[in-house]
Amino acid sequence: MRVAIAGGGLAGLACAKYLVDAGHQPIVFESRDVLGGLVAAWKDKDGDWVETGLHNFFGAYPNMLQLMGELEILDRLQWKRHALIFNQPDKPGVLSWFDVPDLPAPINVITSIIRNNDMLTWGQKVKLAVGLIPAIVRGDKYVESMDKYTMTEWLKMRGIDQEVDREIFIAASKALKFIDPDKISATIPLRALNKFLQQKNGSRIGYLDGAPPERLCQPMVDYITARGGEVRTSSPLKQIVLNADGTIEKFILRGLDGAPDQDVDADIYVSAMSVDVIKTLLPDSWYAMPYFKQLDELEGVPVINVQIWFDRKLTDIDHTLFSRSPILSVYSDMSNSCKEYEDPDKSMLELVVAPAEDWIAKSDQEIVDATLKELEKLFPEHLPAPAKVLKTHVVKTPRSIYTATPGREQFRPVQTTPIENFYLAGSYTAQPFFGSMEGAVLSGKLAAQAIAARYPTAESPTPPTLVAAS
Ligand SMILES: Cc1cc2nc3c(=O)[nH]c(=O)nc-3n(C[C@H](O)[C@H](O)[C@H](O)COP(=O)(O)OP(=O)(O)OC[C@H]3O[C@@H](n4cnc5c(N)ncnc54)[C@H](O)[C@@H]3O)c2cc1C
């Protein structure tokens, strides 16, 4: 089957990868001149990479790890010391480590919490542990049913004091979904915690050894094209044209730079674009269906990525840090953490600004100035002097992953749509890893699996197997 996929982010590429495995012929159409979507990156005039976002991989990403194994690029993941590291707002420059020992799960994570005395008192630790019991014991069903509450409401309900919210869950919510705990669905941090507690290396952080388009997307493109598929950039989907029976007749791609629009005829069509984009392209007659109407309930959240190059080393920490700053979320010195960005003499900090709704309309300079002000608290020895800024880049994404506020989970669509020849992929679609790289890969795989199940081929008479989804 010829399968046209609109969107060359991780979901679209993973979908195409698993479709070629199943004996189908996918063509990916990506609107931009670079692949990767939210993991896209491009080089500036000096040849330095500018990224859409600081990206961490986790041990609890089974589908991503399986995919990278199949592409034979697992060695591109640089696993960091098994720890979570927090800045301490009242102690400038001092870090608090949750070091996870080499013990079986969940004892390893629990031990890391028990051993850390910087952030939580013993009373708070006990209350948090007791409060978490239903999430651990009753598992996914319980965690899903907590989608009606914000994390702050859930903590209150479980008798866990506000200090724990302030100390831990502001940082966690901002890192997970770019919003505060009084906005995030309790399901999100609870599921992340459960995954971290269930697997020995679930909370271990890994970095790709270079920029995602080259180090992760290109191997997928090579794999797809070597097996009869195709990937085209600068090919934006403009319109979905229907047959009289409501199925898709063709995609129309917008011609760029004066070129004419182009028709794409395929047997099956997939949207692997973000929810904000597919909503604008849905044909009117589909929009009346509850399956498509529910997409109105999902909307991308703003986030900003800031990169700052300094004339010297600010730190030798090779890891992700939770800044615990009101403006910033996580950050890393990529000159230590990422092989391709390595520099023994100069730091390049990559920082996520979240929540970003108050910042997204501000100028790059205002965002950099505010970031530097915060960095003075994190690196008091070096800033505002003697360290000097060499250059900066700001990448704003006004609508990134779906905004994970309470009540959204029920509106995330499954990959199989009511239209016979149309499927959805994308990290916003139904899968248990939310808006993440793992979620994107799994969603693409689930869409490919649904297509393979409906249209078996000689190569794949049975659907491809999935790695445990939850
Ligand atoms: C700042 C930031 C930090 C993040 N950090 C992490 C992290 O540490 N760990 C993690 O797991 N996840 C992280 N994420 C989330 C992760 O990047 C996303 O969940 C994932 O990449 C989404 O992939 P996707 O394919 O579903 O969607 P997208 O990446 O949004 O892909 C959609 C694609 O569709 C294309 N498109 C749009 N319109 C059209 C059109 N008309 N025609 C054709 N193509 C079109 C877009 O250009 C894009 O390439 C982060 C995201 C951001 C923004």
CATH architecture of the largest domain: 3-Layer(bba) Sandwich
β content, as a range?
15-25%
Total domain modules: 3
| pLDDT averaged residue by residue | 95
Structural class: alpha/beta
Largest sheet: 7 strands, mixed
What is the overall shape? globular
The ligands found in this model are: flavin-adenine dinucleotide
Q: Specify the helix fraction band.
A: 25-40%
Family: Belongs to the carotenoid/retinoid oxidoreductase family.
EC number: 1.3.5.5
Main location: membrane
Catalytic activity: 2 a plastoquinone + 15-cis-phytoene = 9,9',15-tri-cis-zeta-carotene + 2 a plastoquinol
How would you characterize the overall build of this protein?
It catalyses: 2 a plastoquinone + 15-cis-phytoene = 9,9',15-tri-cis-zeta-carotene + 2 a plastoquinol. One of its GO terms (molecular function) is phytoene dehydrogenase activity. Its main location: membrane. By secondary structure, this protein is α/β, with parallel strands linked by helices. The chain has three domains: 2-37 and 212-299 and 404-454, FAD/NAD(P)-binding domain (3-Layer(bba) Sandwich); 102-201, Guanine Nucleotide Dissociation Inhibitor, domain 1 (Orthogonal Bundle), CATH 1.10.405; 303-397, Alpha-Beta Complex (Polyamine Oxidase, Chain A, domain 2), CATH 3.90.660. The chain is 33% helix and 20% strand. The chain is built from 14 helices and 20 strands. The strands form five sheets. A seven-stranded mixed β-sheet has the order 8-7-16-17-18-15-19. Strands 10-2-1-14-20 form a five-stranded parallel β-sheet. A three-stranded antiparallel β-sheet has the order 5-9-6. Helix 1 (10-21) runs parallel beside helix 8, helix 4 crosses helix 7 and helix 5 (151-157) packs antiparallel against helix 6 (162-177). The longest helix has 24 residues, at 122-145. It is globular, with a radius of gyration of 22 Å. It binds flavin-adenine dinucleotide. Flavin-adenine dinucleotide (FAD) binds at residues 6-12, 29-32, 37-39, 52-56, 236-237, 272-274, 277, 303, 305, 352, 397, 400-401, 426-427, 435-440.
